[in-house]
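Researcher: Re-running this chain for the archive, since the previous output was lost when a drive failed. Same request as before.
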Amino acid sequence: MILRKFLGFVFTTLLTGLFLTVFFAIMNDFDNLFAALGILLAGTAPFMFLIGLPVSIFSDYLTKNLNSKQRFKKAFMIYMIFGLIIGLVLSFFFEHLLLLVITLVASFIYWIVDEILRKKFTAY
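Model: Regenerated structure tokens:
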């Protein structure tokens, strides 16, 4: 489980950083995408580690006794609820609702990556 959670953290950080880079490149016409990717990866990694990883572990703990379809739906709700809460808190402090959208997208990416890794690790 520890390896799966670590891989989920790494893949989600990379995918979220890539998503944010493409999003901001489209919105602001970045010239240097590689530098923007590095900055956004450095910015997303601490949030994924300090918020996303504990939520992922908490979700596994809460849904461990459910069948696959129930667990799938409940895990999605847990990720989205925590993404909403964190997004609202960040939006309150930084006064920008775009942070809410970003945290919800990051939560969705983390959920998808975790579900894919769960299927890959239970297949062996």
